[in-house]
Design a protein that fits this description.
The chain is of the alpha/beta class. Helix content is 45%, strand content 17%. The strands form three sheets. Strands 3-2-1-4-7 form a five-stranded mixed β-sheet. The protein has a two-stranded antiparallel ribbon with strand order 5-9.
Length: 296
């Protein structure tokens, strides 16, 4: 059985669940939802949450756990002694995201892991799929493909380049043991690495993985803007052409399969594959050098 962790501000929560259930209709594989959402979006990439039907979400028989919490603010982190006010003020304008958004992400995974361990049929669960609340799945077959994998599966995000040490946090799939060792580290460890690594969420997650499970391979086989898309209120300059033509998030969800079959998406997929081949050809010592460079 698979556990699907969904966490973040409300955003498009109901649409994501509806889309997953539609894609999995007729499949024999069993899965359940464990959901953690914030009352308010305190990050620097806020979306218009729109009308999320919480009642419909909770009524879904696959929802095993649902919790809403007030999000952590920059002041909270300052009060806990993690960061100075000056550092937190700088993070507001420093990409890719505010510091409290990163800590909220790590915190929510700890909450959901505890909830998973508390269910009576915990022993039946083998793997965890982690999703953000602003993800739309374009590839209808994606879930079946990764649910059949025994590898750690993460996105190949063309925005991050070929950096060996960086792992995109949009989607994560692994067995429960790997997930817990990487996503549920103590906050003292997360804090130390996050500061050391320039407060980059992707680099922090990547280095935690390397230090925690150096011999566990990671497959970057989920392609951004091909298999899935991150929805912002307004399209960004680097978004595919079709995103600029969609007038609303609902239109993207409604036309996801059509988008996936488009020529533009096929070209993007070929671009992803070419980058993966180029990265595979790079000497391993270069990748080790990149890792050490991040640390020192």
């Amino acid at each position: 059985m698979k556990a699907i962790f969904i966490a973040g501000p409300l955003r498009y929560l109901d649409k994501i669940i509806s889309q997953i259930d539609t894609h999995m209709k007729g499949e024999t594989l069993e899965y359940s939802y464990f959901i953690h959402v914030w009352k308010t979006d305190k990050g620097n990439k806020k979306r218009e949450d729109g009308s999320v039907d919480i009642t419909e979400v909770i009524a879904n028989p696959r929802v095993k756990f649902f919790v809403v919490e007030e999000g952590y603010s920059e002041e909270d982190l300052n009060n806990y002694g993690y960061y100075s006010k000056e550092e937190l003020d700088l993070s507001v304008e420093t990409p890719p995201s505010k510091i409290n958004a990163f800590y909220g992400m790590m915190y929510s995974m700890r909450v959901l892991m505890r909830s998973l361990k508390s269910v009576l049929d915990y022993d039946k669960y083998t793997h965890i799929l982690r999703l953000r609340t602003d993800v739309v799945i374009l590839n209808k077959s994606l879930l079946i493909e990764i649910f059949g994998s025994e590898h750690v599966c993460v996105p190949h995000n063309h925005m991050l380049g070929n950096d060996y040490c960086r792992i995109c946090d949009h989607i994560w799939y692994s067995n429960i043991g790997v997930f817990e060792k990487i996503w549920c580290r103590s906050f003292s460890v997360v804090y130390f690495l996050h500061r050391l690594l320039g407060k980059s969420p992707e680099t922090t997650l990547g280095v935690i993985k390397v230090l925690s499970m150096p011999f566990t391979s990671v497959k970057k086989n989920i392609f951004r803007d091909v298999d899935y898309h991150i929805i912002y209120d307004l399209p960004r300059g680097y978004d595919p052409r079709w995103r600029h033509e969609c007038s609303s998030p609902q239109e993207i969800f409604d036309n996801a399969c059509v988008i996936y079959r488009s020529e533009e998406t096929a070209a993007l997929k070929e671009n992803h594959l070419n980058k993966i081949l180029l990265n595979a050809a790079r000497p391993f010592f270069i990748k080790i050098y990149e890792f050490l460079k991040r640390l020192f």
